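EI: anyone free to look at a 395-residue chain?
SC: sure, send it
EI:
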Amino acid sequence: MSRAGDRVRWVFLGLAIGLSGCGGPEDRLRSVPAVGAILPLSGTDARLGESLRVGMELAAAADEGASVRLRIVDGEGRPGPSARRLRELDADPGIVAVIGGAFASVARPLTALEPPGRVPFLALSPLAFPRAITPGAGARRLHRLEALGQAAAAHAASRLEATRAGVIFRPTGEASAVLGESFSRDFAESGEIVWSVTPNEEGRVRPPPGPEEAIDVLWVAGPAVWAVEMVKASRGAREAAILLAAGWDAQGVEVLFEGDRVVHRVDFYSESDPRPIAVRFREACRAAGTDPSPAVALGWDAVLRVRDAIDRVGDERSRIDHVLGQGEATPGVTGRIGDGVAGAAGENPAVVALSRDGIRFLHRIDVPAAAGGDPREARPAGDSGPEESGMPRSP
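SC: here you go
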C-alpha cells in the first residue's frame, strides 16, 4: 500500500474447491464477493482489533452460507484514517459491504460521511448513530449489546418473576451504558427500576442515598466486583438475584454464591450452550486455538450477518443494504428493531447459571415479536430450566 502503517489482509476461503468457470484462479477469486473490514489493528485498541479480526476470519471460513473473501485494513482506531480506508474500500467494485466502527467515536463519523459511500456499512458500535436518528441507506449497526440488555430484562420478568430492579452501569462507558439503558427500558414496561447506581471515579459502587428499598433483581452492566460491593453494602440488594452481562471480569463472583443465590449471566455463545450456532462458534475457536471472547463473537456475528444477506439476495450492494436494514427479518429479542439496525446473527441470547457447582446452560431468551409486548409474557424457548435441561454441570 502507498501509505505507511497500512495493514491489509486478504483472506481467501473455500475458493480452491467448488468454484466453477472457465477463467483461471485469479478470475475465480475475483468472482467471490469481498467484505471489507476497518479495524483498530494498531494503536491503543489493537488488542480489540485483533480479536475482531480473528472472529471475522473464523466466520468467513465457516462451512455455511455464501463464500466471501475478506479485505481487512487498519483504521488505527481513529476517525480520519478510518474514513480514508472507507473511501478506498467504497471505490473497489469487488467490495459488497464494509464492517467497522468498533467505537462510537469512529463509527459516527463513518456513518455521516458526505457524500455518502455506495457500499453498505455495518457498524459494530451500538452507538453508531444517535437513537433518535434513523440513518438513510448505507449505514446499519449490529443489534448485539441492546439484545443482551433486553434478554436480561425478559429473563428477570418471566423467569425470576421480578418486579423491582436495581441497575449498576457506567454512563460514560459505551457498552455499559447501552446494557444499562436497554435493560431499564424493557424492564420498566412490567416492573419498576427502584434505583440506578453509577460507580465513582475509583470504580467503586455505593448504595443509593436515602432509605434502602429492597429489590428482587440486580442487573450489573460491568465487572462482577460491582455486584459484590453492592451486596455487601446494601441491605436492599442482599437477597436480590444477580444478573451479569458476559464480557467483564468475573473476579470475586464466588462471593455471591453464599446461601442459595445463583448468579445468572446473559451471553450469546455461553459455555454448555447446546444451540447449533453456539456449538459451531466454540468449535471454530477451539480449532483455531483462540479464546471465544465477546470481541471474537462480535466479529463472527458481523461477517455471518453479511454472508446471510449475500445468500438471500446475491452480491448487489443496494440489495445487501436493504436486507441488512430489515428489522423484521432479524427480530432480535423484542421485535422492535427498526430501520438502520442489523440483528445479531443466528440466535437470540441465552442465560447460564453460575454456582459453586460450575456453569449450566438454562435457556434461550425468545420474546414474542409483537412491538411493545409485555416482557412478562416471554416464553423461554428450548429447555425450561436447570432441573429439566439435561445439561451436565461443568467441572
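EI: Residues 147-267+349-377 form a domain with the Rossmann fold fold (CATH 3.40.50.2300).
SC: 👍
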